[in-house]
Specification:
The complex is a heterotrimer.
Chain A: H1 11-20, H2 24-52, H3 63-97, H4 106-125, H5 143-146, H6 151-179, H7 192-224, H8 238-271, H9 278-292, H10 307-319, H11 321-335, H12 344-367, H13 369-375, H14 379-409, H15 415-441, H16 458-488, H17 527-533, E1 548-550, H18 556-573, H19 581-600, E2 606-608, H20 610-615
Antiparallel strand pairs in A: 1-2
Helix pairs in contact in A: 2-3, 2-4, 2-16, 3-4, 3-6, 3-8, 3-14, 4-6, 4-18, 6-7, 6-18, 7-8, 7-9, 8-9, 8-11, 8-14, 9-11, 12-14, 12-15, 14-15, 15-16, 18-19
Chain B: H1 2-23, H2 37-70, H3 89-117, E1 127-134, E2 137-142, E3 147-150, E4 152-156, E5 161-167, E6 172-176, E7 180-185, E8 191-195, E9 201-207, E10 220-225, H4 227-238, H5 249-260, H6 297-305, H7 307-310, H8 325-335, H9 345-349
Parallel strand pairs in B: 1-5, 4-10
Antiparallel strand pairs in B: 1-2, 2-3, 5-8, 6-7, 6-9, 9-10
Chain C: H1 21-51, H2 61-64, H3 67-92, H4 96-128, H5 136-166, H6 175-206
The chains are: A mainly alpha, B alpha+beta, C mainly alpha.
Chain lengths: ~625, ~350, ~210
Amino acid sequence: MSIASTQKRGFGAILWDYLTTVDHKKIGNMYIAAGAFFFILGGLEALIIRIQLVKPENDFISAGLYNEMITMHGTTMIFFAATPLLIGLMNAIMPLQIGARDVAFPFLNSLGFWLFLAGGLLMNCSWFLGGAPDAGWTAYAPLSVVSPGHGTDFYVMGLQLSGAGTLMGGINFLVTIVTMRAPGMTYMRMPLFTWTTFIASVLILFAFPALTVGLFLLMFDRMFGSAFFDIALGGNSIIWQHLFWIFGHPEVYILILPAFGMFSEILPVFSKKRLFGYTSMVFATILIAFLGFMVWAHHMFTVGLGPTANAIFSVATMAIAVPTGIKIFNWLATMWGGSIKINSAMLWTLAFIPSFTIGGMTGVMVAISTADYQYHDTYFVIAHFHYVIVGGVVFGILAGLTYWWPKLFGKVLNETLGKIAFWLFFIGFHLTFFIQHFLGLMGMPRRYWVFLEGQGLDTGNLISTIGAFLMAIGSVVFVYNVIITSIKGEKAPADPWGDGRTLEWSIPSPPPEYNFKQLPLVRGLDPLWIEKMEGNNKMTPAEPLDDIHMPNGSILPFIMTIGFTIASFGFIYQVDHSAWLIAVFGGMAIALGTMLARSLKDDDGYHIHKEDLEKEVD
Amino acid sequence: MLRWMGKFKALIMLGIVTLVLTACGKENLTALDPKGYGAEKSMDLMILSTVIMAAVFIVVMLIFTVVIIRFRRKKGQEDFIPKQVEGNHTLEIVWTAIPIILVFILAVPTVMSVFDLADEADASSSINIEVTGNQYWWHFDYAGEEIQTSQDLYIPVNEKVYLDINSTDVIHSFWVPTISGKMDANPENTNTMFIEAYEEGVYWGKCAEFCGPSHSLMDFKIVVVSQEEYDQWVEDMQNVDPEVQVEDAVAQEGQELFEANNCMGCHAIGSSPVAVGPNLTNFANRTTLAGVEDLTKENIVSWLLDPEAMKPGNKMTGNYPELTEDEAGSIAEYLMQLSHSDITPESASN
Amino acid sequence: MSQEHSLNPENLPKDPAKATLEGRNKFLGLWFFLGGETVLFASLFATYLALRNSTAGGPSSQDLFGLELVFIMTILLLTSSLTSVYAIYQMKNYNFKKMQLWFGITAILGLGFLGFEIYEFYHYITDYGFTFRSSAFGSAFYTLVGFHGGHVVFGLSWLIAIMVRNAKRGLTLQNAPKFNTWALYWHFIDVVWVFIFTVVYLMGMVS
């Protein structure tokens, strides 16, 4: 178990390494890779949607296929692209920011990743097995219950698997942040990205179980004949909407808060200035998360909940504008008086501010219940949440990837290509979605396979489609940048930006598997910056050089995931033939057996010895 | 500086294009030109919120622009270390307090209008219509009037009309943007909403809750006529006799086929409560066929021969005897004779 | 580093379950997990409350529930929670044998609870024809109570596995946290049952 790894290894060895790894950085990278794959997949689905809507009464794809496209686009982007890309960054960066050697539960971390990946792949298998889910990403009952074929079953099982994985990730981050901060890293010295990871994990913890229950009810109705949503037997389909949105609204904050965190890291570094109003930023984050749990019914203003509920949820939703506004102004104030360097990471961040402000404002507009009677389920809402999710989350992910790329992979992304990608994507984004506000108000509901001729919707849709293609080209340039950088890019130093403020920039790029040779002593917010200002240029160690305890890799999470996946197929197909119950029980036996094996076998890990550490150069 | 202006020109152009497009919303479909009580209420709040939001956006953009221009790192400033400001209590309180005030300004009229639009005090003294969403058509049952119709909803102008909205299958949503905001049609309960149209005319209605493959083809119309015309229409509808023989020979053959194939099993003519499929009373005066197609004999024939091609996932496909093209032609001829009132969509437009 | 040898009280920490970072992490992790479980059961309770009168002409809660059986079940589960407290107390005293004994009693009480629950379901199905598919009420009842029962099954399997596995090894710094987290999990199951007893059975018999 020496850390002196050989330079050239066979493909099999690398594969085995990744299948068994419990290293948070490798798992983070796998999350990012898988998330990028699903992002491209979801993007292709978006393009197909936009081609279908390029002109009135188009017949590029059939109505049924179109519904599969919109369902898979939404589900893929939310659950299998945005969430894992963020969790990947959290995984790779957060432990570095708090000065930890790994997360609290490395084994669980690996299991979480494999479950997410299995869920995503399982759902996409439906394309080849008789049709994808077609009841929308929200899968409203009873439409989702009566939806023919197995599409919705794949939706249920895929989300159940990946949801379990995400929940594990959330718990893992929480415990890591509570117990594994380096000496001196108090809560109010944690970088904002770590803070938002913490709060987003709290949201994951309390939001995902509601979805889990909703999916169980849907699964039982579809597969085992229960009557939760069967009106004839006294069922009530509104229950699904409540459960879905009790999960679904916090999910928006699970996505946007880490993005806020990333912008709060990038702005200070490239303005050479401390984050303005750190304390109020932290409390605004907590307040947004808290309010985020009591506004779910604003997705249901037209359901007929009555004026009292509508009024309460309207006002509660508007209140979220206050902490969000605090954040926007704090970011502006951070730059004020600073020395702003505009590179591609900063471009994404700067573009985020106006884009997200528009999204936030239309958010207040749709919060007005009376006005929402018009906005609801139209392209206005589509425009609104794409401004939030693309203008906020995707810009954040791309900014964060550009910013941390050298830390993750040891090479700085090409600046020119980065800027080209940015401008294409940025212009394409506004072309695509700005006009959709008006399309909605002009009478175009969402999820429309065709719009009719002569209803004044032609030009707007055409512009929107053109914008979508610009975004696609921008994404291609970004991917090309990644490829060209990994081939030709030069090796990055520990602090490639020169102005790094937080702990991750004090260790080599990419970091060694143990992260910190000696845990650093943290003396304040922006610990590395403090040391730089005092002329130290590196962290003071908090402990003498000693053996480092590391967890062993394990193939068990992968096997366990395979077991659950087999069982999922069994659940889906046992409706057709009871022989599939063998898959259910067999798969569960594999999964539970592995769990038992894990529980019975003590895993003491191994130690990297002091002598080997001394040989390593910084 | 000039280069920078160039970018701005592009933005201004985009704004102008947008404005032109805004004005282009189709009359009696767009929500931006409200002609009904609910739509006006929504519009008022849209305008109020847009004004407030635009003001905030301008302030943010002003600061943003100043920051980027003034504090951008210039050549020779690479080693400059700005003052590390922790925060500023006064400023932070200001930008917490102002949004709270703005939210309050928005919240008060919102709450008032929400309760105003849900007020059902005069429901019993008004016209009540039961609206039922089906995959993929709308049924209207005029409570107490013994009138059943589908797809085209006739109401009098400047009169509050209460709609009791529900569904027989999945969730739909009743939306006529120019007259009022939407209300969901749920299968487990009935939602009540009132509408009041201020101008005569034919208004487009859309299903706004995803309901399956033909969700985008589930359009309907509201035909708003004068009070006299409405009274006349009600009287005409109450006197529909489904048994009456049509005169034209081809149409007569169609009527026989209609009866022989038991079309009435699903499609009622007159006030029969059968509503498995759309009620065909006054069919010849419909604005459209199947919600979206022109009402022509050719289109009816195409529908009868292959409904799936017009409305994917509809419930008629495969549930009626196969027809030859001639038979379909005769039935179409018969249906085109089903004009039960002189009050037509055209009367609303005059 | 004599981790394979069982602990003795002279040279070891006050609380073996929280002596290591792994032990503390596990305990905290389980607490967080139970936070998520709370939302899970809250959602199931909400669903049940929304559907408990939707009997669709089938048997209602008043027709079905009898207090005696549920009362015995409640006593069994509450007692098992208490005995698990004794077990943890013995663990902190480094008395491994007594710990195993108390956990053994806990397992037997848990099995007893499970037996009665299976009998209860069997009774509803055969005597009343009240199944998972009878009505929305039936679906909600079996799902809520069944989820709890599933947790009991999982908890018992987990307990028996770690008891058997460690029977010969004695208490170590690796397995002490496992017993400790198990006990926390078991208390949670107990608390959920108290709510089920109140919301499902007591309220079901009154209204």
